[in-house]
Write a structure and sequence with these properties.
Elements (H helix, E strand, L loop, with lengths): L7 E5 L7 H10 L3 E5 L5 H18 L4 E5 L15 E2 L4 E5 L9 E3 L3 H6 L5 E4 L4 E8 L3 E8 L1 E2 L6 E2 L12 H12 L4 E4 L5 H11 L4 E6 L2 H4 L2 H7 L2 E5 H7 L5 H14 L4 E4 L14 H12 L4 E4 L1 H4 L4 H21 L14 H15 L4 E5 L4 H7 L7 E5 L2 H6 L6 E5 L5 H14 L8 E7 L8 E8 L1
Parallel strand pairs: 1-2, 1-16, 2-3, 3-12, 5-6, 12-13, 13-14, 14-15, 15-16, 17-18, 17-20, 18-19
Antiparallel strand pairs: 4-10, 5-9, 7-8, 7-11, 8-9, 20-21
Helix pairs in contact: 1-12, 5-7, 10-12
Length: 468
Amino acid sequence: MSNVNCTKILATIGDRTGQADMLEKLVESGVNMVRLNFSHGTQEEHAARVKTVRAVEAKMGRPIGILADLQGPKYRIGTVRDGVTLVEGQDFIFTLDKIEGDDRQVHLPHEDIFRVILPKTTILMDDGKLRLTVTKVGKDEFTAKVITGGPLKSRKGVNVPDVVLDTKPLTPKDLADLDFALAQGVDGIALSFVQRASDVIEAKAIVKGRAFVLSKIEKPAALDDIDDIIAASDAIMIARGDLGVELPAEIVPSVQKKLLRKCRQVGKPVVVATQMLESMIEAPTPTRAEASDVANAVFDGADTVMLSAETAAGAYPLEAVSIMARIVANTESHIAKHPQDGPAQLQVEPSVYHAVAQAAVKLAVDIEAAALVVFTATGNTAVRVSRERPQLPLVVMTPEQDVQRKLSMLWGARCYLQDETDYETAVEEARRLILAEKIGHTGQQIIVVAGIPFGKSGSTNSMRVVDL
């Protein structure tokens, strides 16, 4: 594996980057997992991309995870005649009537908004460029005063940050896309606009363990139920695009740090996403602020950083991945030399599993081991060890290819398929692999973490020092 960064890269693929030759280059440059955005493209197009990813994976001999990102409930206004501009201070009507919008009113075809709207509720349109406050509520319409005006165009998005919308977490389109994605064998499902833990529980009842379920945090309402959402989810994405629309921009950085800390504490992988290298959609280099943004996610202990339009539709997808990988590598090198600048140490959970993980990391550091080797059938042991952010190679051995792929978003994990089922033979297999991959050399030692009886899920209870 040529890319040995601990912080992983998740890249969205589109028409150009979904081709095998470009995908190979992206993976070689640092991509660990790809994202299929079901807000765009057809199921047939996504099926072709899944097939291409699996072919590239087989050719390159390294795991590539696939995340299917469902669109979720999208709220948009209807059509608007050309040249409409909203003026600060004016009254503006949202109606269920199917009319062509003008400078006085617009069609809003979402009854669930009308059911919960109240006076003083904030209405945002066009990614927050237009801001209104509700002043009067009727049965089939409500009136709002324009706070921030500007041009209004057809089909622009609507955000209602002040209320919890009484909507299903999975729309009919999402349900169809979910069935399709699971049939294609994707590794993870991303849920958009999660508001409450019950949204995640409902989705997991459908998924039934066939993929991990990642909750995208992009609604302020989710923050009110965040601990339960994290507990219910297999992973979390801090989706700063819509979150930054519905929250004041100055609050988003502190929310990001809070969520990273919460996820790390309970051992849930966390992705920092959206606008990380936004300028590289059109430019071959990022801004210095963007470079700092990526680095700060690494400093705070994110498992994965994500590229969206930069690789899905941008002019410089390969350059975006390459510079992101270099920023990650440089930041991790700094942390290795200055640990106080890296992720904070966490409290030990009162369980054998967490205690063994922390003890194994400390022992490995104390004896300057070449690597930590984790045997896992489900991936859970790897997550527990990764949670400690060990400053040495984390080699994960698993007999399950789907686990290998799912862990491609886990901090530090270098995942290999394990052939042997006998403990002693499996340890020898790992020893040979570490020498062959030049992770360590003869004369060094490795720490092996496993469960006894070997191969039994949920039995992580042992660590062992092995000579190379």
